[in-house]
Specification:
This protein is an alpha+beta fold and 379 residues long. Helix content is 25%, strand content 28%. A hairpin with a 6-residue loop joins strand 14 and strand 15. It is globular.
């Protein structure tokens, strides 16, 4: 999807939400996108995979798990979590999709090949406004936010504004909201595209639910054909994200990433699309069938993380939700309670069936990443 800049400016704008790792720059946000939504129909489109990963969700006695099943979107296939919805938009360079759990908005798999443009300064936005006020062409991305400085961390924090703009909303439905993003950790990563690339751990709010996520993103100032820097505009590229809810991510990260890695785009489809693309996009499309590298980068980065980040993520999720956790030292069971509940409990223990509960030790990784049980069991 291409939008021609007024006189002398030429930029391609894309937003692609999918589950790939090396589909770098797989298109520009489509102003006139080829919109299509595919909702997974288990009876017609999906067949359980014989080699599925360990379904989605938590009970008070079982660990959170995900089971994957084969899904066909015609020109692409992927192993998606059972009962999750697949939403597709665009074609060729604007191909995009989001996979999410309709019953739990925090559980998502997403990919944006190229997101933008966004403004690098308010000054550039005002210049564009002056240009339009003087009778110039309408600048389609005028509603896009300023991301300054243009870093992966700032771009991720601005995504809720980006996905709510009319330009993006016209392109695709079921986009993630990613509100109130709090970046827990950020490490430099390798990407096939030029720019600054980070692998980030973050917590955020998705449709009112606290979520933990892992994001891979490159930010760059796109250079037009003249070789001169574009005036005040930048992009987010190769945006990949997987997420789940509170006290789930430790268990669901692997199957979510397994789904990511399984995307396979038909070579015939790639060949038909590749002719009109620039060299960078051609290289990305050619490698779209070998996604293991970037997926492995994400897995390796998570495996090598500082586990204290898991505790920080859980604590910040609790703050977002107004919740707290207590545990039974005899059984190791962790219970989900309201924030401030323990103070009252601690001076009235004799009134409860469970009178030995304690607050979680600040650095006990096992307790902080354990699934929580319902507080009703405490009475």
């Amino acid at each position: 999807m291409r939008i021609e800049l007024p006189k002398g400016k030429k930029l391609v704008i894309t937003i692609v939400v999918a589950v790939v790792a090396i589909l770098v720059g797989l298109g520009a946000i489509g102003y006139y996108g080829d919109k299509k939504t595919l909702v997974a129909d288990n009876a017609k489109n999906s067949a359980p995979s014989s080699s599925s990963s360990p379904t989605a969700t938590t009970t008070s006695t079982a660990l959170p798990t995900l089971k994957l099943e084969d899904y066909s979107g015609g020109f692409f296939t992927i192993k998606k979590p059972v009962d999750w919805t697949v939403t597709v938009g665009g074609s060729c360079s604007t191909f995009s999709f989001v996979i999410h759990n309709p019953s739990n908005p925090a559980q998502m798999i997403m990919y944006f090949g190229e997101v933008g443009p966004v403004y690098l300064s308010e000054k550039q936005r005002m210049l564009d406004k002056s240009y339009m006020d003087m009778g110039g062409y309408k600048i389609a991305w005028y509603d896009m936010p300023v991301v300054s400085p243009l870093t992966p961390e700032n771009f991720l924090k601005t995504m809720s504004t980006i996905t709510s703009t009319p330009l993006v909303q016209q392109f695709m439905t079921n986009l993630p909201q990613l509100k109130d993003v709090d970046v827990i950790s950020s490490t430099t990563a390798i990407s096939p595209v030029s720019g600054t690339t980070k692998l980030m751990r973050a917590v955020f709010i998705e449709k009112g639910i606290p979520a933990n996520g892992l994001f891979f993103l490159t930010t760059t100032v796109v250079l037009p054909e003249t070789g001169m820097a574009s005036s005040g505009i930048g992009y987010g590229m190769t945006f990949i994200g997987i997420s789940s809810g509170r006290a789930e991510f430790t268990y669901l990260e692997k199957p979510l990433n397994d789904s990511l890695k399984s995307l396979d785009i038909s070579q015939d489809y790639v060949s038909k699309c590749i002719g009109a693309q620039n060299a960078q996009t051609q290289n990305a499309l050619k490698t779209s069938k070998t996604l293991s590298e970037t997926s492995d980068i994400i897995t390796q980065g998570y495996d090598n993380r500082n586990k204290s980040d898991d505790i920080i993520s859980e604590k910040r999720s609790d703050v977002m939700l107004g919740r707290d956790r207590v545990y039974d030292p005899d059984t190791g069971n962790v219970y989900d309670v309201k924030n401030g509940w323990y103070d009252s409990y601690n001076i009235n223990r004799q009134e409860f069936k469970m009178n030995n509960l304690e607050q979680l030790p600040q650095s006990d990784w096992n307790l902080w990443t354990s699934p929580t049980k319902d507080a009703k069991e405490i009475d």
